[in-house]
Predict the 3D structure of the following.
Amino acid sequence: MVHYCPTIRDMQDPRIADTVRARRITHIPSLWRVILHTDDGQTKEQYDHDISRRIPVWYGHGLVSVEGGATEGGRAPSIWDTFSHTPGKTVNGDTGDVACDSYHLWHKDIDLLADLGVDSYRLSVAMPRVMPTEDGPVNEEGLDYYERVVDALLAKGIKPTVTLYHWDLPQYLGDKNGWLNRDTAYKLADYAKVVAHRLGDRIETYTTLNEPWCSSYLSYGATEHAPGLGLGPGAFPAVHHLNLAHGLMAQAVRSEVGAKSQLSVTLNLQFNRGDADAVHRLDLIGNRVWLDPMLRGYYPNELFAITKGICDWEFVKDGDLEQIHQPLDVLGINYYSSGLVAMSDRPQFPQSTAASTAPGASDVDWLPTPGEHTDMGLEHRPEGSVRPADARAQQLSGDSADDHRERHRGRGRR
């Protein structure tokens, strides 16, 4: 499953709504190849026409940017509240205190979704709203809020998907070193069990984590996301503990709903092109560090080799990989753009320990990309995911390229 998520409140502008209705066909077809396994013989027009009859119109949101109600309903502060209220951390000092105010306007949002003909909606549940204290009681008012939203979606014929962790770690866990602390993974599993117990099989799909790359590398390796520690390779414990949380949360959800709901994780895989050695290095650090333990039950030995001298991986304990490696029904892939990379003339070792989103790749250069870019500097490159995504599907299935095409030929047309 691949997600395209415009802001729901934007749908009040009929010009935007019309654009989004059109994009239900054209915005994401390349990534859906991973799921549908459509053969390469189709033209783009054939592919778009074919896919328009099968893709559910699907929207979703992130907590900090949408929910609001930061101090209402028994909600406790999150690390993003602390981060965004720190001067200089966000553009214009913006915070998520109100955001799109979905906490108060959720019923109007659902009406907008129904008007658009949306089939499925992903909502993110806030742990600080459900478990506002570390050892205190569950906040029933918070659970009641999410239950009302879920029931209202179902009443409109919209299937709810729930993301259990969308970056907003309670500040009380942040005060105990957050994702650098192994105990955080177990706290998230306790929380996942509480949510799954209340919402049950009314949820079509439970997603354990949204974009753990951001929750680790951007948050602990670099400084862009909360808590913004800039530890470089010091982010690797956070990477592992997020992997561990995924496995424990998956088991917690399964203990409540069994196979009645689907289980997923959503990764913003890093799509790069250019020098093959540079692409491979970044694939190990940004992609296989998640995919291999989650889907295969191990970390690649090459990852240990390229991070020697900056990480000893002693935080990986016996039995962890068995806990992480849990059956999944859906692998979500969020695609934004792709990078152009090359090996530099700098030596591979010793690796830098400076703040970085790619510790272990300090001898890799990111090159300027041609063409149009977003305000965030991301290249407009919708085709950038096609070949890497197809290759990833082949790699995970163990097929050769020819075997992959033959095995899945025609499956997407059913």
The first strand starts at residue 58 and ends at 60.
